[in-house]
Amino acid sequence: SANRKFHPQDSVIQVGEDKRLVGGGHFAMIAGPCSVESEEQIISVARSVKAAGATMLRGGAFKPRTSPYAFQGLKADGIELLVKAKQATGLPIVTEIMNANHLPLFEDVDVIQVGARNMQNFELLKELGRTRKPILLKRGLANTLQELLMSAEYIMAGGNENVILCERGIRTFETATRNTLDLSAVAALHEMTHLPVIVDPSHATGVARYVKPMAMAAAACGADGLIIEVHNDPPHALCDGAQSLRPEQFVEVAKAVNAIRATV
Ligand code: PEP
Ligand code: MN
Questions:
Q1: Would the CB of 64 count as within 6 Å of ligand 1?
Q2: Structure pTM?
Q3: If we measure between CA atoms, which residue out of 49, 74, 12 comes closest to residue 202?
Q4: CB 3.0-4.6 Å disulfide test: which of 13, 35, 127, 180 passes with 239?
């Protein structure tokens, strides 16, 4: 169970072939583009974020876009390019699954992401419970923390205890930001569950210049990691350019986050 009552110690999740740890004092710095766009793009971003201290590479291959006419991702080819980026840098890779039938394509993926829109796709969660891969479970756009934990239970009930929770902002009446980052979720979840809790300041704000302050705030309130969108050329990104950092900006964010972490 995800409940802290039955498991007082923080869970530590092992990621990738070299068993990178997340949770219980081990911080995950996940960075990369919203979407994998080309081999050159993903390998260049992977090299830059690794040099800046990222511990994992993110990149969407199957994209949950609001419009069916928007870029839907490179799909299986995108996963192949992520695997090439892993081979080039040694960074474990994180990518989103939308359909359980695609699971065979995720064999070399180190962390399978369940996006906000699928947080309550219970059949998908049950299938992921049958795997033993770490699952990055994002909070739904309008879901309570209790509902997030019940979704984690769906995965854990199948025997997969490797769940990392992610606060990525929720829908409110505010329009200055894409979503409203609920940082109190980190403190509340740490009481409710032993699972690691990371923060996505990119989707939470939708604005690149707000990513650094929110990443610092997440580190200050005890988050177990961050997932941040970084693109080599944000104005030309095929998805989420407005919230994407250039690699040089990510370097500054990583430094600021590490400075905060040293004080908490
Ligand atoms: C993403 O991480 O690219 C993404 C689509 O995030 P979310 O599911 O939180 O909107
Ligand atoms: Mn995105």
A1: yes
A2: 0.98
A3: 49
A4: 35
